[in-house]
From TrEMBL, chain A:
Any Pfam family: Proton_antipo_M
Known EC number: 7.1.1.-
Organism: Lutimaribacter pacificus
tRNA processing as UniProt keyword: no
Annotated InterPro entries: NADH-Q_OxRdtase_suN/2, ND/Mrp_TM
Main location: membrane
Protein name: NADH-quinone oxidoreductase subunit N
First and last residue of the signal peptide: none
Family: Belongs to the complex I subunit 2 family.
Function (record text): NDH-1 shuttles electrons from NADH, via FMN and iron-sulfur (Fe-S) centers, to quinones in the respiratory chain. The immediate electron acceptor for the enzyme in this species is believed to be ubiquinone. Couples the redox reaction to proton translocation (for every two electrons transferred, four hydrogen ions are translocated across the cytoplasmic membrane), and thus conserves the redox energy in a proton gradient.
Subunit structure and binding partners: NDH-1 is composed of 14 different subunits. Subunits NuoA, H, J, K, L, M, N constitute the membrane sector of the complex.
TrEMBL record, chain B:
Compartmental location: Endomembrane system; Membrane
Membrane topology: Multi-pass membrane protein
GO molecular-function terms, A-Z: NADH dehydrogenase (ubiquinone) activity; NADH dehydrogenase activity; ubiquinone binding
Protein name: NADH dehydrogenase subunit M
Alphabetized UniProt keyword annotations: Membrane, Transmembrane, Transmembrane helix
GO terms (BP aspect): ATP synthesis coupled electron transport; electron transport coupled proton transport
GO cellular component, one term: endomembrane system
Transmembrane stretches, start-end: 29-48, 82-99, 106-124, 130-150, 162-183, 203-227, 239-259, 265-286, 298-320, 332-353, 374-393, 413-435, 455-474
Family from the record: Belongs to the complex I subunit 4 family.
């Protein structure tokens, strides 16, 4: 009876896992189209299965996995985001060897991302980190050239070290509470040293996934080495999952341990460093990589406010949804325009619709209302102010100005007259479809913010 | 009928419809533009006919937007916003008429203009803090692309400076809005304007944040430096909208947000704000005196005129007598409208001069009055209005502001010196451009054509009308301001 209930609640995850297995089987027959079709169908089915469960607040398997607001919305955000990523992958590497393997790995990594988003137990977090990590390394290494191999190697070493630190540190929490469940973390009240040890572990392990400064070094290299579509995927799905996991872990931790302040400092450093580094990049992928690092700082503002503001969890969820739409969209345009800043020269004039879409993504990333990104940032800023971190909100606001500087470096050349040709490429239809979906989301969901979770 | 909503969104819908058309020729674009702005103007006349009420917002339109956080789509008008709404719709209509000669990427230009109109009307009519901020920022983006796309030689730099400056400026307002929201649990500005949401230190912090935002927008000394650059590079219609409409966001915000929402903090800081107003008025006048470029000169007189508005609001906060407050607020509001009409006309005329001569240096002209009497007399009339001549639009406004200053803070009257300086600079400009020796280079300069007369005449007529018989406008403003004075 108990088992049956648990499995029913896990229907979306199980559907996705089954789809991933079928994809691998289909890949054995080198049927790339079939792999894609199974993947998309699995993602769609899992999304639909999630819809009726949004208001559920339960745990399964002895409290180790949570079916709640965070994990519910995480599925609604990550699953469609993954579907769009699959389309981009298809558009970019169609017909190349092992295309189906890439597709199956993407879905497996998303499964890991779901584990992270619903984690109620230390071991589930570890499994999630490992599952997302292993798949990602392989995805980055896929092109098999020097750049990709080097990037994947760095990514792997970084992941292995941070993962070990995390597992080691988590043992302190286990020692302090006698349980691996996060819901027992309240018992740490008063055990400052133990709290800090475990906290460092979580910050290192998830901070690496979420590319927080100073654990972000792998990100620009990995994004640059990987295919653009994989960079797009990693920059949104695994990152958003890291912050969902942060929310799951830290919402049970007593706030008197000093962790909000420590995270606030990291948040400020991350957004400032990310934008400053982005200001000097000339490679578009690296530029967006650094801007994604900066966006992690905004995510973290919501984490800082966990337990102190009703805006914290909705802020993380809404910003994640916005971020997935606008960052995927921006990467999709890069896929069409080219990897270098110079490739954007005149892009807005020769391809007016795509240019306008790019402007929408960039303004949304800056946080200009009424776009989706603004709503997310607004929630996060409100959360920080309500939690008593006015200074962090001010730094967040000031960084929006740096952000504008970064994104204007893309927008201004787009409307210069230039002789650069911008021909339509193979697979352009799928990419353009992704742009359309993401631009509509960026434009319209902000206006319909009432449908999103609120405080 | 939700006239406010229709007026606000008709322009952007017309713009979207234009984008969807398969044929986006220049002619069609301008037809859409004139038709849409004309219709909006008529609708705002309808809003005016419906009238306002004392002590509250009228014609409120409300729909739930984000119920979880108490944000809703709320529009309404009162005696502060309605005059500005009418000014906005008029200036956009005239700008559309004037811009009909623009051929370069006309469709995009028109779409941007229409987007700006939606943003401007929305900014004045929004009764929801979040919605206000949305419109406020959208206007910024629109103006950036307008300057960057259709301005003169140095437009990229000017546009960038404008965007960065005003974005930096507007972000503190976001924090103030968050503060007001956390203090009240709603974004309803009707709750906020009761002035009891915040008190003590939070109110002062919110006030400082709002003052930064609106000082940049007004613009007040010392954060005015973006204005001359933006104006000089902006296309003519862009300048008209920037000066005539968008500067009023600053003064409107000063009254609606700073003065109404944090009244006690505003009164405490009143002397400082007054000082900024006085310095802006003086600085703007002297800086304008030093310009040889007509457009830059007019841009600096905006700093001067907006300084008077700041003075008026500060006096209202400092004054103890309700009668004085009302006079100061009446004057400040009227000054916004007068400035929009007069400076709008001046920028149009300088633009028409530049269309003919491709230069704006005072020294490049001479004796044009005989050659282009329409242009010349229109400029002279507007210049006289701008320097505050009795019988023209600025006089009743500035008179009330100075009257209140005299009764409240007499030291502020040193700003009157600025009127003398403005008189000098306008006389110098008129003498340099329209009187004296005729420069042969311009011997075959054509006078205003029918379309250009149609653009300028309404502004001139209103300038005289408000100067001679301001009652119809002041009565509307007064209805609301008597409530604010108490």
């Amino acid at each position: 009876m108990e088992m049956g209930r648990d499995l029913a609640l896990l229907a979306p995850e199980l559907t996705l896992a089954a789809a991933a297995m079928l994809m691998i089987v289909a890949e054995m027959f080198r049927a790339a189209r079939l792999v894609l079709a199974i993947g998309l169908a699995g993602l769609a089915a899992a999304t639909l299965l999630t819809l009726p469960m949004l208001s559920v607040d339960a745990t399964v398997f002895g409290g180790t996995y949570r079916i709640d607001l965070i994990s519910g919305w995480a599925k609604l955000i990550l699953l469609p985001g993954t579907a769009l990523s699959l389309l981009l992958v298809r558009a970019e590497i169609t017909g190349r060897p092992r295309e189906g393997s890439v597709q199956s790995l993407v879905v497996l990594v998303t499964l890991g991302a779901l584990m992270l988003s619903g984690a109620g137990d230390m071991m589930v977090v570890v499994i999630g980190v490992v599952l997302t990590g292993l798949g990602s390394f392989a995805l980055v290494a896929w092109p098999r050239d020097d750049a990709a191999t080097e990037a994947a190697m760095k990514y792997l070493v970084f992941g292995a070290v941070t993962g070990s630190v995390m597992i080691y540190g988590l043992t302190f929490w286990f020692g302090g509470t006698g349980s691996t469940l996060f819901s027992e973390l309240g018992q740490l009240q008063g055990q400052t040293l133990v709290t800090i040890a475990g906290l460092i572990a979580i910050i290192v392990g998830l901070g690496y996934k979420g590319s927080l400064v100073p654990f972000h070094f792998w990100a620009p290299d990995a994004y640059q080495g990987a295919p653009v579509s994989i960079a797009a995927y990693l920059s949104v799905i695994t990152k958003a999952a890291a912050f969902f996991a942060f929310a799951q872990v830290l919402r049970d931790l007593p706030r008197d341990g000093g962790w909000p302040l420590a995270l606030a400092v990291i948040a400020a450093a991350t957004m400032t460093y990310g934008y400053l580094a982005a200001l000097v990049q000339t490679n578009l992928v690296r530029l967006i990589a650094y801007s994604s690092v900066a966006q992690s700082g905004y995510f973290l503002m919501g984490v800082v406010a966990l337990g102190a503001s009703g805006f914290a969890v909705p802020g993380i969820l809404v910003f994640a949804a916005a971020y997935v739409a606008m960052n995927l969209g921006a990467f999709a345009v890069v896929l069409l325009a080219g990897r270098d800043l110079g490739d954007l020269e005149g892009f807005g004039r020769t391809r007016p619709w795509l240019g306008a879409a790019m402007v929408v993504f960039l303004l949304s990333l800056t946080g200009i209302p009424p776009l989706f990104g603004f709503v997310g940032k607004f929630y996060l800023l409100s959360a920080a102010v309500e939690a008593g971190y006015l200074w962090l909100a001010i730094i967040g606001v000031l960084n929006s100005v740096l952000a504008l500087g970064v994104y204007l470096r893309l927008m201004v050349p787009m409307y210069r007259t230039s002789s650069t040709e911008h021909p339509s490429e193979v697979g352009a239809v799928l990419t353009q479809g992704t742009v359309v979906v993401t631009v509509l989301a960026t434009l319209l969901i902000g206006l319909a913010a009432g449908i999103l979770p609120g405080p | 009928m939700p006239l406010l909503t229709i007026a606000t969104f008709l322009p952007i819908l017309a713009g979207l419809a234009l984008m969807a058309l398969p044929d986006r020729s220049t002619k069609k674009a301008h037809t859409v533009s004139i038709a849409a702005t004309g219709a909006v103007f008529l609708i705002t006349l309808g809003i005016w006919a419906r009238g306002i009420v004392a002590g509250d917002f009228a014609q409120v339109e409300e729909i739930a937007w984000i119920p979880a956080i108490g944000a809703a789509y709320r529009l309404g008008v009162d005696g502060l916003s309605l005059p500005l709404v009418l000014l906005t719709s008029l200036l956009f209509l005239l700008s559309a008429l004037y811009s009909a000669r623009i051929g370069e990427r006309a469709a995009s230009y028109v779409v941007l203009m229409l987007m700006l109109e939606t943003a401007s009307l929305g900014t004045f009519m929004a009764l929801d803090g979040l919605l206000f901020y949305v419109f406020f920022e959208v206007s910024l983006v629109g103006m950036y692309f307008m300057i960057a796309g259709w301005g003169y030689e140095e437009r990229q730099r000017a546009a960038l400076m404008f965007f960065l400056y005003t974005l930096v400026g507007s972000l503190p307002l976001l924090l103030a809005i968050i503060g007001l929201y956390l203090g009240s649990g709603t974004f309803d500005m009707r709750v906020w304007v009761e002035g009891t949401t915040l008190g003590g230190l939070p109110a002062m912090l919110a006030l400082i944040a709002m003052l930064v935002t609106f000082a940049v927008k007004i613009p007040a000394f010392p954060v005015h430096t973006w204005l001359p650059a933006a104006h000089v590079q902006a296309p003519t219609a862009g300048s008209v909208i920037l000066a005539g409409v968008m500067l009023k966001f600053g003064t409107y915000g000063l009254m609606r947000f700073a003065y109404q929402m944090t009244p006690e903090a505003f009164a405490q800081a009143g002397q400082v704000i007054l000082a900024f107003g006085v310095v802006s008025a003086l600085y703007g006048a002297f800086a304008a005196l030093a310009q040889s470029d007509l457009k830059k000169m007019i841009a600096y007189t905006s700093v001067n005129h907006m300084g008077y508005v700041v003075m008026g609001v500060a006096i209202a906060a400092l004054a103890t007598e309700p009668r004085i407050r009302t006079i100061a607020l009446d004057g400040a509001t009227l000054q916004m409208v007068s400035h929009g009409l007069v400076t709008g006309a001046l920028f149009f005329l300088v633009g028409m001069l530049q269309d003919r001569a491709h230069t704006r240096g005072i020294g490049d002209f001479g004796g044009l009055l005989g050659r282009v009497p329409w242009l010349g007399w229109a400029f002279i009339l507007s210049a006289f209005a701008s320097l505050g001549l009795p019988g023209l639009a600025h006089f009743p406004a500035e008179f009330q502001i100075f009257l209140a200053t005299l009764n409240g803070m007499p030291w502020g009257l040193i700003a009157i010196l600025a009127i003398v300086v403005t008189a000098a600079l306008y006389l110098r400009a008129i003498a340099g451009v329209f009187l004296g020796e005729m420069n042969d280079k311009w011997a075959d300069m054509p006078d205003l054509d029918r379309r250009e007369k149609l653009v300028v005449l309404p502004l001139l007529v209103l300038t005289v009308l408000i100067g001679v018989a301001p009652g119809w406008l002041i009565d509307m403003i007064h209805t609301t301001m008597t409530g604010l004075g108490n």
